[in-house]
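S.,

Sequence below, as promised.
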Amino acid sequence: MDLKANLLAAARHMMVPIARLMVRNGVGFGDFVEAARYAYVEGGKAVLKERGLAATSARLSVQTGLTRRDVERAMADPMRFAILPSRVWNAAIQVLHAWHTRPPYVLVPVGMPLELEYDASDRKQTFVELVRTTVPDIDPAAILQFLKDARVVEQDEHGRYRPVTRFVVPAPSSEHQLRFIARTVRRFLDTVDVNISRDVEHGRFERTVVADRGVPIVRYGDFVAFIRKVMARAIEDIDDWIADNARLDSDEPVIWPGVGMYHWLDDPNDEQFPLDYALTEIKLSKN
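The prediction came back faster than expected:
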């Protein structure tokens, strides 16, 4: 198979879960194709920029195979089908991190976040003050409601609030979950694109661990518990490093790196399941 055929096969493989997500939620093929046109225009712009060429509609048409009319329509409305940032979501993540790392809202040296009253005139250790010192332009009530809806904080019998987790997990099928999924997949595929386009020395860090001989079904729960413990600790250490080395001067140029760790469970009944795994019959218990 040539490069084009291999790329198309890889794209088909990657789009199966996307198509499943679309079909499950009533998004037809026509709507998906319309979104794909805009993605092709954005991709074409990026490739032309890499080559030092201006992204004109004529060049984009040749580069992508789209008609000039489609290209110009996409360029006239670039934010259609765009993932827009959520100020509340981003602010909630910052507040939750500060609650776990920044005195006087955390018990030093054990790193335990303190229980906080929502607001009080006679003390600074309150949720309102936490939000104001972390993201001063966001309404504390909106942040608290978001964290409560996400079941990240709970209120005790005295009316004080405490976080029950360090990480925000969006509600299923919510706007925040879809945005999170889109950003996660985009980041991973961007890393893959960089790594297949450059040599190892100039690529990005990307590692996986595969159970090449399988894991007994009865040990799967132990595996999940183990990786949650190990990976949560590593993520917290990385999160702390990023916070400790954040930009102090607003004029200082920055880049936006990140690290992702992935845990998956392959389905041997999936048509895209790798042949070397599919050769071994695996029967999962209904329990």
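Residues 272-287 have pLDDT under 50 and may be disordered.

Coffee later?
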